[in-house]
Amino acid sequence: MSESAILCVDDEVVILDSLKEQLKRKFGDRFIYEVAESADEAWEVIEELQQDEIQVIAIVSDWLMPGIKGDEFLIQIHQRFPQLITVMLTGQADEEAIERAKKQANLHACLHKPWTEQELTQIITSALD
User: Fold this and answer.
1) What is the C-alpha separation between 81 and 90, in angstroms, rounded?
2) Is the pLDDT of residue 1 over 70?
3) pTM of structure
4) Which strand (E) or helix (H) includes residue 8?
5) CA–CA distance, 87 with 16 (Å, rounded to integer)
6) What is the pLDDT of residue 2?
7) How far apart are the first and last CA of the chain?
8) What's the CATH code, domain 4-128?
9) Which residues is 61 bridged to in the sheet?
């Protein structure tokens, strides 16, 4: 059983399914793959994983979500878990939001929709190295 998890956050289930499938194909059983349809749900998943002593090592979060923008969410994540790898997924984030996430959330990368499986797995691989 893996002790590390990758969490994907997006309000579109089809996006979450794609991310999870692509990560599984590349990394297999190295990680647990969790998904959340909102920032609130993501916090719940993180709490549950912590209770099970599973460390979230990376979060791939959409930028445009109901309730909170991805850059704000990733900044909150970084404040609480500074070692966590953050990746923002976006079809329409403005450059200011990306810059803010780089400065305040230690954003590892910004992945633009539509992405390729190779882009996704290269970003996660480089972050883990």
Assistant:
1) 22
2) no
3) 0.95
4) strand 4-9
5) 14
6) 63
7) 21
8) 3.40.50.2300
9) 9, 88
